[in-house]
Design brief:
By secondary structure, the protein is an alpha/beta fold. It contains eleven helices and 13 strands. It has helices at 16-22, 49-57, 69-81, 98-112, 128-143, 148-158, 171-176, 182-191, 214-228, 245-259, 273-279, and strands at residues 4-9, 25-27, 30-33, 36-39, 62-65, 85-90, 119-123, 162-167, 193-199, 205-212, 237-241, 266-270, 284-289. A six-stranded mixed beta sheet has the order 10-9-8-13-11-12, with helices on both faces. It has a four-stranded parallel beta sheet with strand order 2-1-6-7, with helices on both faces. Strands 4-3-5 form a three-stranded antiparallel beta sheet, with helices on one face. The two termini are 33 Å apart.
């Protein structure tokens, strides 16, 4: 089997430890706050997640930037020169231009410099640790000896089974991003109505329902898992949060209680700044494989 690199971007919200364990490469997206641009590395070397969310709570805004073609080209060339192929698992094309940049870079490099190398790009149609969980499966398959093409095919066949269920605590950030109307945000805040959202088959974040109160919204995430998860007791589950670890742990406890999943197979990490800039503090998300999204 020809050697190949597994490359993703930092929207996958993988921990630095898991990146090392899986042997994957991560290209960081960027975000800007107060005229300073930061790169979103898995080890949070440029900004602490708690500080990022604290600044959002204090009223600062963050804007995010996709990875451009030049950044992908610069990242890919050293691997290609070493004679390695590359499988890219990219942030949902419905949410970012990052995937298109990866495709353009791959086409240019194969046509102009490396005609004998393979650079395959998978549009994950995923976000945050949903993308991260898809990468986790890809890395596991690679470790089992699957070829680049076999892993690519598995990802394409299964990515729409990667379920994402989100809730947020502050509707202000969804209002700013146009996800909910100002009236909905105002009434929802007054009545403590929390949206329950998922990522659909086109890779878009969409509202599916509502819950009255925070605890009900957290429970709703696990209810959806109960409805669609395939062999939940045999899965590895990812949970991400916007600086609200206690709430993420409540979801993890519910998942363990309902499905008997051992604690070591539930991974919790922060929602990174790229997603968090739009979802805000208090976001909690649950990711698993299901029969459908």
């Amino acid at each position: 089997m020809r050697d190949y690199i597994l490359l993703t971007d930092s929207s996958a919200d993988l921990t630095a430890g898991l990146v090392e364990e899986l042997g994957v490469e991560v290209l960081p997206l960027s975000f800007t706050m107060a005229n300073q641009t930061y790169r979103n590395w898995p080890d949070n070397r440029e900004i602490d997640p708690h500080r990022f969310y604290q600044r959002l709570r204090e009223g600062e805004m963050a804007t995010t930037s996709a990875i451009n073609v030049g950044e992908y080209t610069e990242k890919l060339i050293p691997y290609l020169r070493e004679g390695k192929d590359v499988l890219v698992v990219a942030f949902s094309s419905a949410l970012s231009a990052t995937c298109q940049s990866a495709r353009l870079a791959a086409e240019e490099l194969q046509e102009q410099l490396f005609p004998n190398r393979q650079i395959l790009v998978v549009d994950s149609l995923c976000a945050s640790m949903g993308q991260g969980l898809l990468v986790w499966y890809a890395a596991r398959l690679r470790k089992e000896g699957r070829s680049l093409e076999e892993v690519r095919d598995w990802l394409e066949e299964n990515k729409l089974r990667l379920c994402h269920w989100f809730t947020v605590d502050d509707l202000h950030f969804l209002k700013r991003g146009g996800r909910v109307s100002p009236a909905t945000a105002m009434v929802g805040t007054m009545l403590s109505i929390k949206p329950v959202m998922h990522v659909d088959d086109e890779g878009r974040l969409v509202k599916v329902g509502t819950a009255r109160g925070r605890n009900a919204s957290l429970k709703a995430l696990v209810d959806h898992m109960e409805d669609t998860a395939v062999d939940p007791a045999g899965q590895t589950i990812f949970i991400s949060h916007g600086d609200c670890l206690e709430d993420a742990q409540k979801v993890a406890d519910d998942v363990r209680g309902r499905f008997g999943i051992p604690a070591e197979r539930i991974l919790i990490n922060n929602v990174g700044p790229v997603i968090g800039a739009h979802s805000g503090p208090g976001t909690v998300a649950l990711f698993f494989l299901g029969s459908k999204r």
